[in-house]
Amino acid sequence: MDRRYFLLSTSTLALSQLLFGCGGNKQTQLKVQLLKGSIPGQVVNQFHNGLQQQVQLKFSPVEQLQDLFQQLQNWQQKPKSTDEQGWSRFIPFRQGQKAAEADLVTLGDYWLKAAIEQKLIQPLQEVGGNQLKQWSALDERWKKLVTRNDQGNLDTQGKVWGAPYRWGSTVIVYNRDKLRNLGWIPKDWSDLWRDEMQQHISLLNQPREVIGLVLKKLGKSYNTENLDQVPDLEKELQTLNQQVKFYSSNNYLEPLIMGDTWLAVGWSSDVLPALARYPQLGAVIPQSGTAMWADLWVRPAGITKDTLSDQWIDFCWKPSTAKQISVLTKSNSPISTNIVTSDIQEPLLSILQSDRNIFNKSEFLLPLPPSVIKQYESLFAKIKV
């Protein structure tokens, strides 16, 4: 999915290339490749200061989640057979795939199944293992998300493949100035169908997101597999399409800020930084529930397991650290953080202080069979014509 391509306001303490510690090659290292803007620099500094031993930390930010997934793929690619012919086979130490250059990598939950199937990553621990001391602090929902079998599907008897450290959701964001004259603000997906919103809405250019919100309006799941058995689904989609001015997964905020559109559906990682800068914008998590995403720490295949990377994961799950990550990167935390009004700007509270009832109705976009994915894509293309 092409989400979260532009991230986070300049107020975030972003990592450009943080290197803590110095020393020779024999010094213990922790190398992390992470999504840019997803971890504040001061959090890394605090982790380094709290370590008992001399350690070199190398945190390298990468712009997009898709690039991180492709990096995992590149590390596991074996040389072409032609490369192993002739003089090249005599080069010392040149065998097998390229070694991974990081102990931990950020991965979005959307890519977790593919990473497991393609053997790009290895489990963090067995279920019931005690390497991750803070594992028990996670809500069962987060444990379920990352506990999977070797095919990458949810399995309570599987292994733990990822460590969620922040999350967000799909939200409705609107221009207060434009809706003030109408006398209402959006509260749920059904508001997208109001007559006065015709040609004033932008939606994400994503079949799972758009069809999913219609399914949610109809009381169904985002992960519904038999679309042809959902009454009125296509009719509702056609009606919604008449409301839409354009579809975009990248450029939906600028028209909203300018007033060219009045309402948009977008990802909280894009929307929250904009709320902090543009007071004319408001946002709401739909009461029927919404789609959720999570950023995870994963361990590349072939990397030797070490206690230092586990220490980093546990550090991210400490309540005080989790709160810093949430507040400074404008995201939600899988750990209870007790964020209050004084911690963050008022416009952001409605998104960062999740209503438990809405949270329970919300869903991760789980892997679907290829044939079902084609159904979503085909129906989405049909209604946009």
TrEMBL record:
Xref: PROSITE patterns = PROKAR_LIPOPROTEIN (PS51257)
Single annotated GO MF: polyamine binding
UniProt-annotated location(s): Periplasm
Question: Which Gene Ontology BP annotations are present?
Answer: polyamine transport
- From the record, what ranges are coiled-coil? 223-250
The name of this protein is: Extracellular solute-binding protein
InterPro entries the UniProt entry points to: Sperm_putr-bd
Q: Provide the alphabetized UniProt keywords.
A: Coiled coil, Periplasm, Signal, Transport
GO cellular component, as recorded: periplasmic space
Organism from which the protein derives: Nostoc edaphicum CCNP1411
